Write a sequence for this structure.
């Protein structure tokens, strides 16, 4: 058996208090729910979470927020989870709201080893507060610095035993770029198949980015 395939409890034990964790998904679609459930059971705390959104109160990333395991979240949307808003208002959590496209590019540039990305999005708004403004050919841009994490937990639809990943339609979302931008990458696989089973043309995340594979639950 591949050394990358490990028990989910062993995989989650590599996530420690105070770490920065990227979590794939878009409103729970493409989110590694089984890993998150074990994180909740382990009672992790003081996490910084990088994600597209904080989901719902009782689902996925929302469970981490509800159980007060998160000290800071870097995200593009919290509107569907009133608990995130409440904790932000009460000073229990720090919320760094980033426009969705900028968030994706910050993660992508982190994975590519770039110094950041220049974007006009946010100019003249509170988004530009504290950020460097760069002028190129007479046009102004915000410098959005790259994002990286200690750990990325992602969801793959079909994963071979070496860690090559195929995603399922819209469940792909943030998962591929997050796989490139963390020191440790754990993929929750809905299906695990033998090497050379996947069509190379359909592999989105190559095995080189994946450290560990855990068996997921196709029903979430």
């Amino acid at each position: 058996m591949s050394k990358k395939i490990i028990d989910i409890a062993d995989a989650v034990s590599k996530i420690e208090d105070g770490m920065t964790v990227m979590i794939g998904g878009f409103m729970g679609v493409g989110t590694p729910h089984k890993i998150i459930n074990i994180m909740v059971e382990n009672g992790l705390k003081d996490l910084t979470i990088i994600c597209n959104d904080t989901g719902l109160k009782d689902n996925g990333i929302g469970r981490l927020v509800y159980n007060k395991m998160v000290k800071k979240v870097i995200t593009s949307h919290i509107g569907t989870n009133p608990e995130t808003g409440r904790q932000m208002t009460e000073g229990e959590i720090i919320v760094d709201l980033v426009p969705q496209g900028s968030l994706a590019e910050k993660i992508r540039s982190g994975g590519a080893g770039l110094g950041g990305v220049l974007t006009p999005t946010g100019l003249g708004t509170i988004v530009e507060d504290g950020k460097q403004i760069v002028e190129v050919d007479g046009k102004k841009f915000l410098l959005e610095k790259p994002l990286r994490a200690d750990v990325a937990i992602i969801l793959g639809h079909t994963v071979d035993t070496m860690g090559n990943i195929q995603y399922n339609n819209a469940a792909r979302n943030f998962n591929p770029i997050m796989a490139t931008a963390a020191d440790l990458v754990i993929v929750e696989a809905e299906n695990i198949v033998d090497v050379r089973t996947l069509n190379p043309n359909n592999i989105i995340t190559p095995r080189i980015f994946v450290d560990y594979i855990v068996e997921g639950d196709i029903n979430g």
Summary: The chain has one domain: 8-112+147-215.
